[in-house]
Amino acid sequence: MIKYIKESTEYLQNKGFDNPEIGIILGTGLGQLTNEIEIISEVSYNHIPNFPTATVEFHKGKLIYGILAGKKVVVMQGRFHVYEGYTLQDVTFPVRIMKQLGIKTLLVSNAAGAINLDFKKGELMLIDDHINLQGSSPLAFKGVEELGERFTDMSAPYDTEINLKFKAIAAEKNIQLHKGVYASVVGPQLETRAEYRMLKIIGADAVGMSTVPEIIVANHLGLRVAAVSVLTDECDPEHLKPVNIADIIDMAAKAEPNMITLFKELIQNI
């Protein structure tokens, strides 16, 4: 993996990716932040050596480098998932590349279903903790200790200072920003009524199919991390209706301006 990381990093440096400070991963239906960036360089994933290729139709598949709110950023427009057939090492490979390029902070967004029925679709949730239900760890491979501490501490995986800033920005901008626990499952099927009940019992406030692997690796690499979920549907097992993926994408797009405001304002202040 060290050889692959070096090859990918050198390729991007030669494409003008010069010491970004902040990495950003954009989730399902959340690609419009790139319109706020003064783009210096962008590369399709399938052109980057050793990179996976996004196979989900609503994930763009570009790595973008530029200026956002006065800071150098590298942005994943589209991410990878275990349900696409990738390993957890594949899914998190871009985080390792962003670290090598120079980032110190990683900001993550995703679309999630609200398990906590006090949370409503169209609102945002700041992730304070998570539950890994993806069945393995992105650190479970031979030689991981060459890239960081094998037994990575996860007592506080999300940066307290950044989360406090997110809450302050949300209050100032009158944005509803809940705080909660995100459960990450494999997917791609959505949950049954019994599974939603289980998730609530074990303490989840929202559920999705991403984010946790990237957060684990970011902690492994010593990055400051924060993540925000856009709540796209309400997962009430007692009144469960079939979910339309197009509706989820549409709801993510409607909530996206608030997420963009949070990210821009935060980046100006870190």
UniProtKB/TrEMBL annotation:
It is an enzyme of class 2 (transferase). CDD domains: PNP-EcPNPII_like (cd09009). Residues 21-267 form the Nucleoside phosphorylase domain. SUPFAM superfamilies: Purine and uridine phosphorylases (SSF53167). Pathway: Purine metabolism; purine nucleoside salvage. InterPro entries: Nucleoside_phosphorylase_d, Nucleoside_phosphorylase_sf, Pur_Nuc_Pase_Ino/Guo-sp, Purine_phosphorylase. One of its GO terms (molecular function) is purine-nucleoside phosphorylase activity. The keyword Ribonucleoprotein does not apply. Its EC number is 2.4.2.1. The keyword Transmembrane helix does not apply. Keywords: Glycosyltransferase, Transferase. The purine nucleoside phosphorylases catalyze the phosphorolytic breakdown of the N-glycosidic bond in the beta-(deoxy)ribonucleoside molecules, with the formation of the corresponding free purine bases and pentose-1-phosphate. Belongs to the PNP/MTAP phosphorylase family. This is Purine nucleoside phosphorylase.
